[in-house]
Structure formats: C-alpha cells, structure tokens
Amino acid sequence: MAEPFGDRVSLVVFGASGDLAKKKTFPALFGLFREGQLPSTVQIVGYARSNLSDEEFKDRIRPNLKLRNADKSKIDEFLSLCSYMHGPYDEDSGYVELLDKCVAYEKKHNVAVPERLFYLALPPSAFATVCRFLKKHLNSESGLKTRVIVEKPFGRDLQTFRELQENLSPLFTEDELYRIDHYLGKEMVKNLLVLRFGNEFLGAAWNKNHIKSIQISFKEAFGTQGRGGYFDTIGIIRDVMQNHMLQVFTLLTMERPVSFDPEAVRDEKVKVLKAVEPIDPKDVLLGQYSASEDGKEPGYLDDDTVNKDSKCFTYAAFALHIHNERWEGVPIVLRAGKALDESKVEIRIQFKPVAKGMFKEIQRNELVIRIQPDEAIYMKINSKIPGISTETSLTDLDLTYSKRYSDDFWIPEAYEALIRDCYLGNHSNFVRDDELDISWKLFTPFLEALEAADGPKPELYSYGSKGPKGLREFLASHGYVFSDEGTYQWPLTTPNVKGKI
C-alpha cells in the first residue's frame, strides 16, 4: 500500500461543473471534511470549461452538501478551501494556469514534495487527452507524488478498454491510477470479506457442498428518464452488470487472500475470474420495459431520444459458472433491470436442503445480504413454532444496520469511502488493469452475440412489474427453490421492503 498523502495536497476535480461532480464528488469531499477525514489545509480546485465565477460555482455545489449533525458553518469552512478555474481540456493554457496555482500553494506552505490528486469526473473520451496534458504540465517534476482517479466505464468492450489502457499506461503507472467503481465503496460490499472470512460457520459452508444457488440482483424502480439515447448505446449489461455486479461476484466467490494488502485482494479476484466459464448467450433472459399497465409511466421506446426499432436490453438475467474446487456446479445468477416494482440491490445465497428423515418437509436456509437501500443481513432459518405445536416455521436472524447502529454512527457513502482510500494510498477497492482485461474477455463475446443483427429480441415487461414473465422459471432452472410457504416477507423492522422475487 502506498504512503498516505499529507495535509498539504492540491486536489483538482476536472469536470467540476458537471452533474457527477455536483452530486457525488464534491458532496463526498465535504462529507470527509465534515467527519475530520480530510485536512482543513488542502487546496480543492474545480476545473471545467464552463465560464463560472468562484461564487457561481460554490452556489452550484452548496445545495448538495449534507450537514448530518454538523453546524452550518462547516459548509462555509469547506467552501473556503474551494476555488474554480475554467479552461479547455485540450490546450496548454489552462494547465499552465493550474500548475501556477498548485506551485503557489506549495510554496506558500513550504511543501518539499508536492502531492497532487486529480479526479476526472469526465466522460471516458476525455481521459487520454486530460492525462496527456497533466503529464506534460503537472506531473513532470522529480519527486512529485501524483494520484489520478478515473470513472467508469472503462471501455465498452475488450478492444476499447485496451485502447484506453494503451493511452493511459505510458502516462501514469498502475500505482498512480485509481479506477473507481463506486460499488466497491458501499458498506455492505466492503463487509463481504469480513463476513466470509471472519466467521468460521459461514466460511465452512461457503462452497458447493452446502450452497445450492446464488443470486445477485440489481433492481431499479425507475426507467431511463430522458437518458434513453445515452442508455441505448450501453444497455443494462454494460451499465451495471459487467462492472458493479461483477465486482460483487468476485468478492463473493474469491479465495481467502493472505492479507488485506490491496494486491493480495486483487490477485484473488483475478484468479476467480480466470476460472469462469464463457457466458452462454442462449441461456439468458432479456427484457425491455413497456408502458405501465395503468398508462401513467412511459415505455422505453416512448422516449424521443430512443430509436423506435431499438432492441436495447433494459433487463437481463444470466448465470456465471466457476470451474474450481469450491464452486463447480453452483449457478450464480446475475439479474438486473430498470422500471421494476422496487429499487433494491441484494445477494441471495440459498443452501442445500437438510437430510430427509425426521422432517417430511422443511424450508431451505437462505442468507440474504441487502446492499441497498437500508443495509441488512438476514439468515432465513427454520425454527419450531412456540407452544405445543411441533410444526416448524421459516424465520430469520436479523442484522438491520438502521436498527443496530444509531444515527450518530457515521457510515461513509461509497464516494466518501473511495476518495478516502485514494488519499490514503489504498488500492484494495479499485479495479486493476488485468482484472478489467479478463472481465472484458468474458463479456465481449457474450455482448457481441446478443447485439448481433440476428441476436435475440427482448421480452416486453410492464413498467412497475417484476420483470419478464419467464423470471421465475429461469431462476428455478438455475437451482433456486421457491418456498412452499409462499413469498418470504421482510420482518416488520424494515417496513416497505419486501424480499419478493
């Protein structure tokens, strides 16, 4: 792990006038400052092409800064650290001015070894250009410490990822690059390694001998909402499955690393990806949402920015199969969709049935890990109904974070956690180049088969429904057994959140 940055850092956010910076980057920086995790002596510079004054820029980001339990003066203190520059991304002039600003700050504070963190809240098409100018003007001094955060998507297939990598690797080393996938910063995702390897009873059962099937699901209760033209070029698989969900998959299935050292963790993620069988394009459930049954919500093709003949997938479900000693024969289903009945991201691990004999019928154990909203872990267990009855009932062991931890307990949001990791030089929760190469090798042939002219057409499902009608049959064909007692309901400790399939 690299050495942490000190308290005199120039932190530059490119694309500072955009939505990502406004809604995620600057609120995360403020959250760290509010909690004492970001020094009050750093310099924060917003850089973008928009011609804004300092005050106009600060007025733009101010409404998104969350106080939590802090005094309002904290916002003013944070904004006093921030300044704004406007300039082009593809000309020397802006970078020369930015260098002067960094050097003046470093001289003022007698900084012997400059430390500079660049956050690229930009489209991937701008990464190479900005990085070339950064290398030329702001990363050419000897002894300088530089870190660069880049946002997904990291290409749209194997070829475009490799082109991006070829452009960036001569400019910055792998140690200097931090590829951010914000799902790796989510609290419950970060908890997976401790949950798996810090509990003997789970570690002993975390294999093909005890687990029947695994589901990782990503559900959104809203559609593309005017972003249809953009989404049409990406689809649900590129949007959340090749990146966010695959990261969860690797943490669920990797072998135990020798330590929490970033490279030890990332080595194991790469190993398990190498053991994954090519994805079968014939064994997939694909959907596209149509208007809601009551007609109040539009269908995907009703978006004026979408081609009326588009067969873009807004829903997909498919299985990954790992050929190794731990997971051989266990289907791991990834399913994701937009415009569904609820917004929820969760993991469902269903165990094999207990031996027959003393029980005629008994439900299967299931571990449910809810990543969002309202982080929670449930173990569905069988228990005797209290009283004189000898019947069993499916109940749960419940760890709901909102009930276990008070509001005063700070749980960092994903971007807060990841920017802090970068500041500290911790690569554990960032994506390495060889991991991306292997993941695109896995997904590119699959996507090419699905998106070919003669590829499958998506099944229509109504906005606000559970998804394509074949979902239940698809899950059953991949090892998931539905409870005979009907749909499992979340306990009353988490109102309005149901664990329906």
TrEMBL record:
Q: Name one GO biological process term.
A: pentose-phosphate shunt, oxidative branch
**EC numbers:** 1.1.1.49
PROSITE patterns in UniProt: G6P_DEHYDROGENASE
The alphabetized UniProt keywords are: Carbohydrate metabolism, Glucose metabolism, NADP, Oxidoreductase
The record's annotation in Pfam families points to:
G6PD_C (PF02781), G6PD_N (PF00479)
For this UniProt entry, what's an example GO CC term? cytosol
For this protein, what reaction is catalysed?
D-glucose 6-phosphate + NADP(+) = 6-phospho-D-glucono-1,5-lactone + NADPH + H(+)
Supply the InterPro entries for this chain: G6P_DH (IPR001282), G6P_DH_AS (IPR019796), G6P_DH_C (IPR022675), G6P_DH_NAD-bd (IPR022674), NAD(P)-bd_dom_sf (IPR036291)
Glucose-6-phosphate dehydrogenase C-terminal domain: residues covered:
193-481
Q: Which residues form a coiled coil?
A: none
- A Gene Ontology MF term for this entry? glucose-6-phosphate dehydrogenase activity
Q: Cite the Glucose-6-phosphate dehydrogenase NAD-binding domain residue spans from the record.
A: 12-191
Which PANTHER family does the record cross-reference, listed alphabetically? GLUCOSE-6-PHOSPHATE 1-DEHYDROGENASE, GLUCOSE-6-PHOSPHATE 1-DEHYDROGENASE G6PD
Described purpose of this protein according to its UniProt entry: Catalyzes the rate-limiting step of the oxidative pentose-phosphate pathway, which represents a route for the dissimilation of carbohydrates besides glycolysis.
Q: What name does UniProt use for this protein?
A: Glucose-6-phosphate 1-dehydrogenase
Whose protein is this, by species?
Answer: Scheffersomyces spartinae
Lineage, broadest ranks: Eukaryota, Fungi, Dikarya, Ascomycota, Saccharomycotina
Q: Which gene encodes it?
A: ZWF1
